[in-house]
Amino acid sequence: MKWKEWLYRVLSVKLIVGRFINQTRFQLEQVNNYSELDIRIKTINMCLISTVIYLLAVFVFLLFSSGIVLTIVFCVCSIFLAASVQGMMIEHYKYKLLKQQIVLNEQIRNSYFEYKAVSEAIYEATHLIDDIKNHEVVIQAYKIIEVLGNKDIEAAAIEYNEKAPNKYLKLLMNIAYITCEYGDTILEGGASLFLRSIATLNLEVRTELIKRERINFLLKGLNFIIVLPLLFVQPIKGWASANFPPLELFYLGYLGKFLEVLIIGMVFGCYYLLSKLQKNDFSYKASSKQSFIERIMYFSLFKKIAFKITPKIDSYKYREVSKRLNSILSSLTIQEYYHRKVLSAAVFGLGMVVVNIGIVQKVESNIIEANVVVINLIFFIFGALFGCIIQDLTLRYQEKLMKIEVEEEISQLQIVLSNLIYIKQINVFELLEWMELFSIHLKNPLQRCIINYDSGAKKSLEELAVRVANPNFSQIVGNLILASSELSIAEAFDDLETEKSFYMENRKINNEKIIQRKQWIGQTIGFMPLYFLIIVFLTIPMIISSLSQMQVYFSQLTKL
Q1: Rounded to whole angstroms, how far apart are CA atoms 42 and 34?
Q2: Sign of the torsion formed by the C-alpha atoms of 377, 379, 385 and 391
Q3: Containing H/E element for 291?
Q4: C-alpha dist (Å) from residue 263 to 12, 119, 159, 356
Q5: What b/e string do you get for 311-322 counting C-beta neighbours within 10 Å, with b at 16 or more?
Q6: What are phi and psi of 422, to 5 degrees?
Q7: Phi and psi of 423, rounded to 5°?
Q8: What is the full DSSP assignment across 268-289?
């Protein structure tokens, strides 16, 4: 282990390698709050595995392929393969942590019956579960105990909420925090509110695990099917050229080389999309930090082009883009967004030109060499258009992810509120403060509502409902309005338990829809490169060459 720690210290300060190591470390820190030594060792392990897989993929490709252009394209695309492997390992850690939390929650519930105190129950639970099998969740349990014992418990809770590996551990900490702050509430029939909340939390975790298990089972094996075409390109070329001589000229020609590059690009593009599809946690965070490409290409020419294509302030397009950037909590301005579009267009356009030049140099064709400038221009235009479109599609995709995250956050707030509404000494303003404490995406509108609350409770709550255009959240705000004027908090939220049951049933239906949709999309993406290889790279050229040969034979027959 010492050599791994030494390797981390040496490589983490290097320019390019250090950036890769720091990104890997950041991904691991999102999964669990390991100790410094553990995080360094796990980071090096993951980097070494990714590097070995990358080198192995390049070696296997070299055995089945020839040509510097295809090799360079493959080496560049394989970077996505290494990143996808890291993503799969991170997903494994997340899944493992969820399974461990079920064990922890059940043991906390059993210990609470004996100690009737939250901190002691969590502490006892960490000693009763297997520390080796459940090491990751035990670390989190000790961190929750530290939060509950902190002098400034509110600041400690905020810090944990920002670093928690998943929303379910965050909910566990929040339930424990509320119980420590106000004490446990005995409901009708003698039931404990804390124990009921733990049972609800466990049900949420089990539902999430079932969804992940089904998705992993349905998408299992597709990662291997996607990369199969890379191994069969050269065997298919050899077989087709030996049995259909006209195809040899096709595969040695410009179009054949272009299709090979296209297959490589399609394989890694589909692999990247499938890896995104297999992820179960959406944690998109908008950032205005400039990328490496932006730092080296922030020239006046690109700024001038971006200024020309940026829509006017009073136009519909400007308002639409501004609304989408705000919906994903991005701090980018409209001008900065369009500058990214120009850079993306330049990068994709130049990339297509470089690939075309590499193919032309491998092909001996006077016709192509004579029109190489025109072909390069066409490739640049198509690449630039694709670069612009990809930015718009990315923004739409991020917008959908943010909607999912907001829905999940609202469901968490419902669980938090179910622990607060039965506390007699709490009021609406304090409920808003608790909601703001446990929120991420809704924090800004909730903070504004709290600031304006003294100037008019009903008005500030109505403005909050307008800012967050979500039916479930609007219902929560409606209950808060009733509690601030006419009814008590318990009476205003009387339907919360019924709504929570409805939400659980509705979530099961939505999970089933998500599973079916992911299955269909995953199978479509997984088999697309293979279909392209068989139909476009083999069958269609074979049919075209056969028809050409038949035309030659018929011409010869007519001359007899």
Answers
A1: 9
A2: negative
A3: none
A4: 35, 57, 47, 15
A5: eeeeeeeeeebe
A6: -90, 0
A7: -85, 120
A8: HHHHHHHHHHT----------P
Q: DSSP code of 299?
A: -
CB 418 within 8 A of CB 412: no
Supply the DSSP string of 354-386, one letter for each residue.
HHHHHHHHH---HHHHHTHHHHHHHHHHHHHHH
Answer for the pair 491, 480: CB distance below 8 angstroms, yes or no. Answer: no
Task: From residue 521, give the alpha-carbon distance in Å to each of 208, 289, 304, 403.
Answer: 20, 32, 40, 20
DSSP lists the bridge partners of residue 186 as 192
Q: From the first residue on, what is the mean pLDDT of each consecutive set of 10 residues in the chain (560 residues)?
A: 75 72 75 74 83 79 66 70 74 86 92 89 89 83 91 87 82 86 80 85 86 84 81 82 81 80 81 75 49 52 71 82 75 77 83 77 62 81 86 79 74 76 81 81 85 88 83 86 82 74 72 81 88 88 79 73
pLDDT at 363: 64
The confidence score (pLDDT) of residue 287 equals: 46
Q: Which two tokens stand for residue 338?
A: 């369009």
- Residue 33: which of 147, 127, 128 has the closest Cα? 147
3-state SS assignment for residue 253: coil
CB-based burial label for 220 (10 Å; 0-12, 13-18, 19+): exposed
> Residues 84, 275: contact at Cβ < 8 Å?
yes
**Which three-class secondary structure string do you get for 79-116?**
HHHHHHHHHHHHHHHHHHHHHHHHHHHHHHHHHHHHHC
Name, in order, each residue with C-beta under 8 angstroms of 39's C-beta and a sequence gap of 6 or more: 25, 28, 29
Residue 231 corresponds to which tokens in the numbers above?
Answer: 């191994």
**C-alpha–C-alpha distance, residues 139 and 147, integer Å:** 13
**Residues 410/470, Cβ–Cβ less than 8 Å:** yes
Residues found in the chain: 560
Task: Give CA–CA dist 420/179, Å, rounded.
Answer: 9
In this prediction the pTM is 0.73
The predicted structure's pLDDT at residue 497: 65
Dihedral angle over CA of 490, 493, 497, 502, nearest 10: 170
Q: Are 355 and 367 in contact (CB under 8 A)?
A: no
Alpha-carbon dihedral sign for residues 483, 489, 492, 495: positive
Structure tokens at 324: 């989408």
Phi-psi region of 389 (alpha: psi -120 to 50; beta: other; left: phi over 0): alpha
CB hemisphere CA count around 534 (13 angstroms): 5
Residue in the structure block whose two tokens are 């519930």:
109
DSSP structure class, residue 560: -
Q: What's the chain's Rg over C-alpha atoms?
A: 29
Q: Which of 344, 331, 254, 346 is nearest to 291 (CA)?
A: 344
Nearest to 28 by CA among 18, 39, 20, 19: 39
Q: Which residue has the tokens 């001589």?
A: 245
DSSP structural state of residue 70: H
Give the C-alpha separation, 408 to 226, whole Å.
32
